[in-house]
Amino acid sequence: MAIYVVLEGRRRGVYYRWEDCFAQVNRFPGALYFKVASRAEGERRLQHVSRILQTSLEASTSSMTNLTVDQLHATSCNDTNINAVTAVLSVGLLVGLTLGPSRTIE
C-alpha cells in the first residue's frame, strides 16, 4: 500500500490514496510531496518538518525584535516567505532529498 506525505500543498498531511495526495498538490506552486513505506515514517517526516519550520519562525521572530517600524515594513515587503523556503530546503538537505517543484521524492 502506497502512502504519500504532503509537506507543501493545499493541506499538509499523510494520504493513503494517490488521488487524495494529488488533490492537495496539483497546480499548487512549489508543491512538495513524496511516497513513504509506512504511516509512522510519514508522521515522523511531518514532525521533522514542523520542528524545522517552528525553529526557523522563532529565529526570525527573535531577530526582528530590535528592528524599527521602517525596517519591519521593508523586511515584510521584501523577504516574504524566505524563512519558509529556507526551512523547506534545509529539510531536503537534512534528509538527503532532491527538491523540485511539484515532483515526487522517493
TrEMBL record:
Any matching Pfam family: Cauli_VI
UniProt xrefs under SUPFAM superfamilies: L9 N-domain-like (SSF55658)
Domain of life assignment: Eukaryota
Domain Ribonuclease H1 N-terminal: 3-41
InterPro entries on file: Ribosomal_bL9/RNase_H1_N (IPR009027), RNase_H1_N (IPR011320), RNase_H1_N_sf (IPR037056)
Transmembrane intervals: none
Protein name: Ribonuclease H1 N-terminal domain-containing protein
